[in-house]
Amino acid sequence: SDVLDELENAVSIVLHHDAITGTAKQAVADDYAKRLYKGGEGAASLLNQGFKEIIDSKVRGRGGDDDGVIRPVEESSVNDGDVLQRAEGLDLDNDFVQCPLLNISTCAFTETSSRSKQNMQVVVYNNLAQARDDFVHLPIGKESSVAVFDGAMNPVASQITGLDPSVRPGSSEDVEDLGFAVQIPPKGLAVYYVLFQNIPQNATLAQRSKTRAVSPN
Amino acid sequence: EASIKISDGNIGLTFDGSSGLMRGMENQKYGIQMESSIDFLVYNSSNGQGQNSGAYIFRPEGTLPLLNRGDKLNLTVVEGPLFSEMRQTFAPWLHLSTRVYGNRDWAELMWRVGPIPFADNLGKEISMRVSSSVSSGDEFYTDSNGRDMLKRVVNYRPTWDLQVSEPVAGNYYPLTAALAIHDDKSEMAVLLDRACGGTSLNSGDLEFMVHRRILADDARGVGEALNETECGCRDCHCAGLRVAGTTGLVLASATDGPGLRRQVQARKESPLVTAFRAITS
């Protein structure tokens, strides 16, 4: 897709030593950042289309394993379409979005979804050639009651933690961090559900971490 | 509390109740525990003796005390079912959260630096330093673009007799992924989420630069100080850039250290891609 050309062009420009090392005027550095950002945004939208295609093709019954973990289409065997549909007849027509500022706990989509109790599907892609246990952290509105399930609708333990004020100066008060463990196959996807309403009985509601201040002696 | 410990699974970190600094680290999987601490250095960016620090040049003139910092760190302990975390505020512009997960054999250092104050009219480079009782002497290892680890020796060049004129900058090396030290029993390493400069100036130290704000130009062609007074807009006066990063901290046996280090390095190079969409039932 020529969308990727824009990212490729940006990356080739920023391979210049001035871009890699920052030995450039502020305006030039800003321009490098703008090109990379536009290229990255385009590539992300392409990835999102890919996620949607792979996952929805499962729902239409083209295979996958019933553990809710989605492998590349050609490798899939068991139809996991039932798995996704087993999650109470989900309508999965919406497009995916990504949040580039997750590293500073900022994501309008997850924050507004939690406040409006809009259930979410989360897809996690692992680019490594090894299976991977990792953690996903999402910002959600304060005081949300939430439960996480894997792709096979098995409950997943999760933890809600208040944000350190320095993570988002001036806007950390009404946001918390939802963290949960994920297992993803090599070069593969895994699907999770974050539910704020219609939470099934077998749910494990997210546990709130305990926070205490310690003033040195 | 004389000391506060956070530990989930194999990794345990102990913090000193009087200074608020980390005091020890252990990895029960390898039966290793040792004194270890994490602090930040503020280098005073030289703007004299004929060569300024600048975009091309790192030429510190000694270090400065951590500004605006009380003599002790306030701590915030977070404990939960999946991970625990210690939050330290070194200065209003300098924060570190150290996190340990139940099923991980390394710690995550999540740091936030900036805007770097410059009311004293001094440029600054901020480096994080992990110190430990690893008996590494004057040897340390830096990656070469994520591939093999190159051995470095303080104040030494393998191909000529180095006359040391820059005891700090002369020992800083480019890092892309990893900085490691080891002795015959243990290995300690930091795994980076971006390229930067780093060194090990004392036995057991791992030091890498996290942010800089320079007030003079180094006359190498940029023609502008690395000062972010305009970040993103021409005429507005901006307080300066904030930088946030996450660094993996590995402590393992000398034999298992390299394997664990490369596993964490691969994850830093390929972070998970996470996407979301609404479900309408």
Describe the structure in your own words:
The complex is a heterodimer of chains A (217) and B (281). Helices cover 30% and strands 25% of the residues of chain A. Chain A has 217 residues and is of the alpha+beta class. In chain A, the strands form two sheets. In chain A, strands 1, 2, 4, 5 and 8 form a five-stranded antiparallel sheet that branches. In chain A, strands 3-7-6-9 form a four-stranded mixed sheet, with helices on one face. The longest helix of chain A is centred in the first third of the chain and has 34 residues, at 26-59. The termini of chain A are far apart. The model of chain A is unreliable at 60-68 and 70-88 (pLDDT under 50). With 281 residues, chain B is mostly beta strands. Chain B is 5% helix and 46% strand. In chain B, a hairpin with a 5-residue loop joins strand 16 (196-199) and strand 17. The model of chain B has no long low-confidence stretch (mean pLDDT 92). Chains A and B meet through helix 3, helix 5, strand 2, strand 3 and strand 6 of A and strand 6, strand 7, strand 8 and strand 19 of B. Strand 2 (120-126) of chain A pairs antiparallel with strand 19 (273-278) of chain B.
